[in-house]
Amino acid sequence: MAEVSPKVMIPESFQFQVSSSDIAGQLTLIWELLKAPLIVPLLTLGVYICLAMSLMLFMERVYMGIVIILVKLFWKKPDKRYKWEPMQDDLESGNLNFPVVLVQIPMFNEREVYKLSIGAASNLSWPADRLVIQVLDDSTDPAIKQMVELECQRWASKGINIRYQIRENRTGYKAGALKEGLKRSYVKHCEYVCIFDADFQPEPDYLRRAIPFLIHNPEIALVQGRWRFVNADECLLTRMQEMSLDYHFTVEQEVGSATHAFFGFNGTAGVWRIAAINEAGGWKDRTTVEDMDLAVRASLRGWKFLYLGDLQVKSELPSTFKAFRFQQHRWSCGPANLFRKMVMEIVRNKKVRFWKKVYVIYSFFFVRKIIAHMVTFSFYCVVLPLTILVPEVKVPIWGAVYIPSVITILNSVGTPRSIHLLFYWILFENVMSLHRTKATFIGLLEAGRANEWVVTEKLGNTLQKAAEAKKSNPKAPRKFRFKFTDRLNTLELGFSAFLFLCGCYDFVNGKNCYFVYLWLQTVTFFITGIGYVGTII
User: Taking each helix axis from N to C terminus, what angle separates 422-445 and 321-348, rounded to the nearest 10 degrees?
Assistant: First the structure.
């Protein structure tokens, strides 16, 4: 007898007919079938997770706000908390009371700015026989190498002890260059090392203000100065960066220094005790944040750090969106990758007290370097827009409006002069959170781009010269630096379309007027998507 194959009986209402006129109806049916059992629970869980992360970030910002107020009102100034005496010139002993200081200037194809840092370092007010300037040139362009070497020779002819060093390869990138520089025989008698990136221009009295803290306080390993941006007013992109970085220096670095004598070394504009670097294991290139890596390892060995907010060093902000994106990838991926590699080492450490471990793991790493990026993107660019399409899932008003407003106000204290740009800064930070979140996951998972190092492009006064040339000759043909297709960023354009559709749906069917925010966020994603974020001010 022939075997009868079983038949699956499908209700008539569930039989799909493939036809162009019925596709929308079938998709609607699938949506309704999946919404209640799958989409609503998952989205609800996403809302709860985002609210929890928002509360964590809110409490961190409130804590930082309270502490910085107490620091400003009641904490002693650095020269009162620590011993500090000005450097005195002694006619009898000559310059022997001045320690020998090494200044390292790592650079890579820095055509536009190499003269700035070399000139500023050569003009430091410190005895010439107690100062060694080391230019660590990893440039791959022979013409630039020659220009940098000639600049070093020019200053050497004026009596400056300046050394031009190159390597056969770029192993370890910046960390590798700094490490190789410390191995030179003429460095063995140096007690301290000061690091300046190629675009940094310290004031002549920089060492005289920083070094005494290290001389008179043997427990201090690092004195960090503050960055001051010479091109903050160049365009809207640089103004946005200034707002974010001013909060970092005004609040985060100040609070860390005052409460736990710990903060992340900024990689430049700082003076290290060389003995502390050696005790911590030296420079390592296992992540793209070699500066933070060294700072955490030194802190775990009991060394203290001091941040001086009034010790300011001029520097340059990225003025192209492409350069800024690469920089933010490195700054977001690196800390997450370092957290993955060091969290258990921090937990097992026995040299630092319990509350400092909590501060480093929870506040410094988890909330600021991971949660802050993830909640900004996932909540305001994904979950909140999706709840508009699924009205069964509600977001409480305190989570959608009140907490973000308080966090934003607290973030704005660093740059009062840009308070009128605050709303656009929020929208821009939401866009950048897309890239920071992606980079954070790459770092946590140690994926393909975890160790990608792209040197941030510095333009020096190139744009200023171009603007002056345009004023003097307004009829000159305009030269475009990029093709329009090179500017396009498909990820931002995709999210722009998604948020626009969600805003349209909310405009027609919603009750919370989220479409106002969604359409404004759509415009910001679109502007960055076509690469014009840095062209207006």
Answer: 50
Size of the chain, expressed as the number of residues it contains: 537
CATH number of 96-319: 3.90.550.10
Cα 65 to Cα 57: distance, rounded to the nearest angstrom = 12
Phi, psi of 102, rounded to the nearest 5 degrees: -100, 130
The span from the CA of 500 to the CA of 494, in Å, is 10
AA letter at 182: L
Domain ranges in the chain are 96-319
- Does the predicted TM-score (pTM) go above 0.85? yes
On whether the CB atoms of residues 404 and 429 are closer than 8 A, the answer is no
Q: Is 281:345 a contact under the CB 8 Å cutoff?
A: no
Residues paired with residue 399 on neighbouring β-strands, in sequence order: none
* Crossing angle of the two packed helices 403-411 and 236-247, in degrees rounded to 10: 90
The CA–CA distances, whole Å, from 517 to 46, 241, 390, 444, 498 equal 20, 22, 18, 31, 13
Maximal CA-CA distance, the chain: 119
| CA–CA separation, 169 and 374 (whole Å) | 36
Q: Which residues contact 175 (CB under 8 A, 6 or more apart)?
A: 283, 284, 285, 290
DSSP of 141-166, one letter per residue? -HHHHHHHHHHHHHHHTTT--EEEEE
Both tokens of 523, joined, read: 């415009």
- Whole-number pLDDT of residue 506: 92
Q: What residue has token string 């569930």?
A: 14
Point out the least confidently predicted range of 130-139, 371-380, 450-459, 460-469.
460-469
In angstroms, rounded to a whole number, what is the distance separating the alpha carbons of residues 403 and 252?
20
Query: Quick one: pLDDT at residue 14?
Result: 45
Residue in this structure with the two tokens 């809302």, named with its chain if needed: 47
pLDDT greater at residue 483 or residue 367: 367
The lowest-confidence range among 49-58, 181-190, 524-533 is 524-533
- List residues with catalytic annotation: 138, 291
